[in-house]
């Protein structure tokens, strides 16, 4: 895919030194004919809403500002950057008392910590399991592979709701499981995984750890699949040569396996980072951002502003923040992996 | 380039690939340790699944058990029956299970069909044609792709909820779409007959297209407009949700399909160009037939996303008759609901089964595509 630009274009441009504008733009015109339907649709329902969103974020757009035909219609007023100020200074409670526990910087910090703590587990577990599965002579390999893909196959929403019920304080599967091993150490009413307010470690509530478990379960198979593909393309001769030179298994893992996995794992990790950063289903269905908004991430907070509180103006301003933050993250990751070159590939 | 050679091997071998050189023997203790490790992982993966399967086989409405059960003692399908009879609790609304399923299917199939159809043309342009603004447009699509759908929920809702019209408009749109498809088919048939190239494949396309057009006509006629009906609220209907979902599904389809099209070797087209083929002929005669598996996979991924879409649907839909499976499942979650856990378990299995089976069937192609997308973005 590198440098070989469309040969269609080469064929039409190499004929004569000077061509009329009409002839020269022929490929562009063909291209835009193919793009036309997609561009029209995206202009209306993808790009225009982004612009509209920015305008909304500068107004006090509320639930009654939507439909001009109803009796209690209230036209949105321009309020400048008031919404942004309210968000950054955590003053949303002045608009809606429900938003008492809203803390912008805590949400952002938690979101970043949530992303990295998850992705580290996904990648390391994914690689370890892939390497174990790739050991020659392992029995039942096919059965294990068939089982390990299951978390990817089930819809995320269903998985999240199942884990929500598993972490239930009363008769949730996790508590029942712990009871078998720890017996009386578990309180009679069960561990309240999702509602316990007091932080347990690192200043984070128990619900964070519950979701971490659920999301590790959900995320590592993808990394294992990517790593398995990469492992199988590492030539066996490298390991044989290393054995002759007296390398131990551990040496081989660090000096051959890991470096050769890197080209496949870096893009997969970046994909994982973006997906985990925006992982709506797991947070929204398992902890719901609770207790007291301590495990809220940016997307769930935005969703609550828009859906629960119908604060469209503030929700739009919050979404603009999400755009900026994700733009920064993707710029950083693009630099790391130098994806920019491969776009044009 | 190094990346893509590795991912290609992924797509070729897939997850079920046979380990190389199964001849080597492990020491018995190595084998034992590895087996223990793999078993622990397998058990942890199966734990939630077995729990939910066991729950779903209990009697409908039975109490939660106070001991852990991971293997069903007896199999009763009454929970499934109960969910099919009465998916929502009486207070949440009155809608049949088949209607829920129909709504989810309508959303998922419609969104994935339109985004793939429109997306494949755009993907061809991005992959094979050089034009002014190519890099800029493609990067902006990539940027949109990074954004969660929720980040444009507010403007989409505000925009779509403004649109209120009579239901007549909807019927006209259906008819126009059907007309466009029929016209396209007629043009295609004429040009094929002229160039003496009307083969079995073309007949299949004609019949497929006619079937879609027929469905649209039937759907348009099926919209019943009661006298003094309330105006049709786009933002409160499944069509509105579908439009909002296409705003995210279309960039995904373009990006994904472009990745696939890039892997189709250029030599075929170069040969065709020497024979005097135009870009249109290359697209219809070479690219589209070769990209059929990619189209199927992209359409399926779009379908899977639409099948369980929750956030947009929950914001847009306010009438029980338009609920989808995802909304119904949400009302069954958690400890304060009136729905029994065995019903919840049966519901989640019934939602998962159709898409999971197709996923497993297509898995070889999907895995290759996912990693390819990873390399690209």
UniProtKB/TrEMBL annotation, chain A:
Record-annotated ABC transmembrane type-1 domain positions: 108-333
Where located?
A: Cell membrane
Q: How does it sit in the membrane?
A: Multi-pass membrane protein
List the GO terms this entry assigns under cellular component, sorted alphabetically: plasma membrane
The entry's keywords = Cell membrane, Membrane, Transmembrane, Transmembrane helix, Transport
Chief location of this protein within or outside the cell:
membrane
Listed under GO biological process in this entry are:
transmembrane transport
InterPro entries, sorted: ABC_transporter_permease (IPR051393), MetI-like (IPR000515), MetI-like_sf (IPR035906)
> What Pfam families has UniProt attached to this entry?
BPD_transp_1
PROSITE patterns per UniProt: ABC_TM1
Q: Does the keyword Transmembrane apply?
A: yes
Instruction: Report TM segments.
Output: 34-55, 112-135, 147-166, 208-231, 264-286, 311-332
What protein family does this chain belong to?
Belongs to the binding-protein-dependent transport system permease family.
Q: PANTHER family this protein is in?
A: ABC TRANSPORTER PERMEASE PROTEIN, DIACETYLCHITOBIOSE UPTAKE SYSTEM PERMEASE PROTEIN NGCF
Q: What is this protein called?
A: ABC transporter permease
What is the species listed in this Swiss-Prot or TrEMBL entry? Answer: Herpetosiphon geysericola
Q: What is the lineage of its organism?
A: Bacteria, Bacillati, Chloroflexota, Chloroflexia, Herpetosiphonales
